[in-house]
Amino acid sequence: MPSVSRSTDPRINVIGTGYLGATHAVCMAELGFDVIGVDIDADRIRRLSGGEVPFYEPGLEALLRKNLEAGRLTFSGSLAEAVDQADVHFICVGTPQRHDSGAADLRHVDAAVSGLIAAGLGPADLVVGKSTVPTGTATRLAAKLAAGAPGAELAWSPEFLREGFAVDDTLRPDRLVFGVAPGGTAERRLRTIYARTIDDGTPVVVTDHTTAELVKVAANAFLATKISFINAMAEVCEAAGGDVVELASALAHDARIGHRFLQAGIGFGGGCLPKDIRAFQARADELGVGRALAFLSEVDAVNARALTRAVALAREALGGSPTNRVVGALGAAFKPNSDDIRDSPALAVAETLRRAGAHVSVYDPAAVVNARACYPNLRFTDSVVSAVAGAEVVLLLTEWHEFRELDPAVLRPHVARPVVIDGRGALDPGRWRAAGWTYRALGRPQR
Ligand code: UGA
């Protein structure tokens, strides 16, 4: 149960109501605080105020409604109103990749800080950055605050939530990282805000601004590297005749390696990993240590090759050119339990085959609306059966539970040729083969 807000409790402003900010605002209210969420997107504010989450995130809408009804949570388009009401201001705006380079575009972060200063940030206010930023950003922003709002403090506390598990990751994170300047009140105030989370046993790492910024990009770089490592092993398995799934499961018994993020397939996408490794490299170049992160361009290259290999496998399964061939694609989101299609490997594979002349039909349980808007030439369907109808090859591209549970015997009469390519290593090959299907997967031998 959330605690009842007291007059001495921090009053919280969350700037930016995308995946990160909307989840953060709702979870802060769930922890019992009075929260105002601010965004420049009027439609987003209207929908959130009406109890509607503008993206797919399991569990978030129920908590949004609960906290709106409890009167702890409001949304506004006015930063001035938020500065008037709150004393702790979380920056949760996006830091997309710049169009002209791999670096991060910081204009929204800068606009948030300028907006706070212009709105009359007070000397007792605390600004907490959560957006993913290149290292050095917090130091620069702290100087900007010192000049524009003397006394106001800056902390950097990166967020590690995963889409699809955003609520749980926010309320029960693996760790909290507080990047603070020496001698200030930020650590004490953050410990107050996260008191319940800390009491529940969440470890806290208190460090400086620079290290806090680095923790976030290093974590994502490590995860991306782990995925590309196993996809590189899949390439070797393909050449040597090994089986990457059996290899990964044997590696995972070593507790130092572990089993998570060793799922070979069509690679990583989404709004974070791809852009974060490029921004990290760009920043390392600026710092004169580009060599230290040169391996990240290989991580990126392995990831890009996973798509090419999946398309090549589809061509091979079709026995030649995809022109005028019928392909069924299961999945559009960059991962299950999300409607996010940013840098989605699933759509990249489907679109490449379409451009090569195939008639590709795509089904996804949540991402069709977003996908259709960006890929108007793909055909989208409202069920698995209509996506695979008449298909000469079926591609599993996002491992939704619904797809993992498919009965291959039930699906078989709907396709022209029972050939499945498992782009996520999510299906049981024995079950599909027993039902008469040819099963193919990246990094696995054809049996
Ligand atoms: C990622 C990080 O996991 C979060 O900790 C971080 O907070 C977040 O980015 C962020 O920076 O905001 P997310 O983008 O939600 O979270 O997605 P992940 O679960 O990391 O998956 C990323 C991609 O890797 C997906 O396309 C997924 O299909 C792929 N993946 C994941 C694999 O190909 N193989 C695996 O074994 C695991």
From TrEMBL:
It holds the Pfam family UDPG_MGDP_dh. GO terms for biological process: polysaccharide biosynthetic process; UDP-glucuronate biosynthetic process. InterPro entries: 6-PGluconate_DH-like_C_sf, NAD(P)-bd_dom_sf, UDP-Glc/GDP-Man, UDP-Glc/GDP-Man_DH_C, UDP-Glc/GDP-Man_DH_C_sf, UDP-Glc/GDP-Man_DH_dimer, UDP-Glc/GDP-Man_DH_N, UDPglc_DH_bac. NAD(+) binds at D39, R44, T95, T132, E163, K275, R342. It comes from Candidatus Frankia alpina. Keywords: NAD, Oxidoreductase. Residues 328-429 form the UDP-glucose/GDP-mannose dehydrogenase C-terminal domain. This is UDP-glucose 6-dehydrogenase. SMART domains: UDPG_MGDP_dh_C. The active site is at C272.
